[in-house]
Fold:
Amino acid sequence: MLPKLVIHNSISLDGSTTGFEANLEIHYKILSSYLPDAMIVGSNTAKTGTQFFCEKIPAEEESDFQKPEIQSDDPRAYWLIADSKGILEGLMHVFRRSEYSKDVIVLVSEKTPEPYINYLKERNYEFIRTGADRVNVRHALEIANERYGFKLVVSDSGGVLNSILIEQGLVEEISLIITPEITGRKGTNLFRSLEKSGIQLELLRDEIVEKKYVHLVYRVLKE
Structure:
């Protein structure tokens, strides 16, 4: 069974995810209000995001090779990071140390380099291996539901992964925080790699946040 999937993102008025300074406090406050079991993130977004966690990548320590002890009342979400090419090798401990994450579960494919798989095993990271060349996201989410009991997953990622999630009909809701700024040519469209058109949405909620931002929530209507 598939968990419920919500796309959550902060964008400019003209639909860009870059070229402006998002209010991360509001972004994560609204995201955490969903109480997700897990957040799904693409590897490129995760790699870019390391700059928000640390100015310089710290050296690994002995504790980074062990799973963290998780209390039953820990409200934080797991992070599902899709990384079929293994570009986060040497960086995974940054996410494991994050105050926003219980721990990391990595989504990989059959063609993921074996040295990267060994890197994950040596550090006791859980991983889901599915898909021939790229991660089969649908199957990975089904496994996450069966193996870990994830009922609600929120995507906190960029345009590529979010476009894949919509293309495959996996998204039930889209949550957008509109920042009152226009990025123009330097912007990067949220759904820039989406080839499917005519996707219909139903507005569920609209809210003004701190007299500056607008939070919109849409239901994705199934065909």
Residues 137-148 form the longest helix (12 residues).
